[in-house]
Structure formats: structure tokens, C-alpha cells
């Protein structure tokens, strides 16, 4: 089995179609619906996104060394800070390109094929089961932006998720 990849499943019928990859998808991935439900639950329970650099940051010491020290975060009463991160952000060909020609196709496993800027906004490219290339919210970054458009108070000082690319 391939190592875990953490991108969101857009089409569960294609991801869980009986091929050898479905076990890993089931163990390590979340669907778009699940991710949106998690965001809503965090919001309802009083969590607020904070930037990792607000939690702690480097401070130059008198001896020239650097030490990380706790930052100051001032949230309204009843709010709790949370750092959201997405690890291993990469749109692997085995997830999107069923015929190995280097292009995403309708035989892929139902994941976005790339993250890009379109019309000044971060969005995803996704090839659906009919082979149509669509652009929209098919992974964490644009989905979180959509959520923050509706709930700007879910972000402290404009915080977003931290992503780690591969």
C-alpha cells in the first residue's frame, strides 16, 4: 500500500470502487462532506483558527541563540484556539490518472487533480466521472475559504490552515 495522502475525496463512488487503493483511502482520507461537517462542529463548539506563528514564534536571545516563545492570543470569552494543518498536499497521478498518460481523467479515483489560482481565487481542478474538467472547492484550501466567507469569526487575525506540500 502507498503511504497516506491527505487530500479530500470528492467522489466516494470512484474512491471506493473495489480497487486496492480503497483501503488506504478509507483509513487516511476524509470526504468533502466529512470535512465540512468537522468545520461546522469545530465552529459550533467555539473553536477559532489561529496561525501557528501566533501560538509560538522565534525570539533572539542575548547569547545569539533563538528560542521559541509562546505568543499572545486574545480570543473572546468561550472561544478556543485551534491550528489546522493539511499534511502531504500533493495530487498524485495514481489518484487522478487511470491510463498513466500524465493527464487527469474520468477513470481517476475521485480526487482533485491540482490546486491553482483562477480568477484571483484559490480553487481546485477536478475531472468528474464524465470526463469533464471542473473548477471549484474540491479540497481543504478552497473549502476552508468558503467556510470562512460564511463564518469570518472562525479565523483569528485572518488565520488559515497550514499546508505541507510534497
UniProtKB/TrEMBL annotation:
Keywords: Hydrolase. GO terms for molecular function: hydrolase activity. This is Hydrolase. It comes from human gut metagenome.
Amino acid at each position: 500500500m502507498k503511504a497516506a495522502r491527505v487530500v479530500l475525496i470528492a467522489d466516494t463512488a470512484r474512491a471506493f470502487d473495489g480497487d486496492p487503493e480503497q483501503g488506504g483511502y478509507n483509513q487516511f482520507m476524509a470526504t468533502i462532506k466529512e470535512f465540512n461537517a468537522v468545520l461546522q462542529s469545530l465552529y459550533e463548539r467555539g473553536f477559532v483558527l489561529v496561525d501557528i506563528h501566533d501560538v509560538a514564534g522565534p525570539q533572539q536571545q542575548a547569547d545569539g541563540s533563538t528560542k521559541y516563545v509562546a505568543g499572545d492570543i486574545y480570543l473572546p470569552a468561550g472561544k478556543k484556539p485551534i491550528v489546522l494543518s493539511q499534511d502531504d498536499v500533493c495530487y498524485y497521478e495514481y489518484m487522478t490518472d487511470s491510463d498513466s498518460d500524465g493527464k487527469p481523467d474520468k477513470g481517476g479515483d475521485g480526487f482533485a487533480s491540482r490546486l491553482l489560482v483562477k480568477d484571483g481565487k484559490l480553487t481546485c481542478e477536478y475531472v468528474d466521472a464524465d470526463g469533464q474538467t471542473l473548477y471549484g472547492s474540491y479540497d481543504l484550501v478552497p473549502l476552508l475559504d468558503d467556510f470562512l466567507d460564511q463564518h469570518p469569526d472562525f479565523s483569528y487575525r485572518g488565520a488559515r490552515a497550514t499546508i505541507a506540500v510534497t
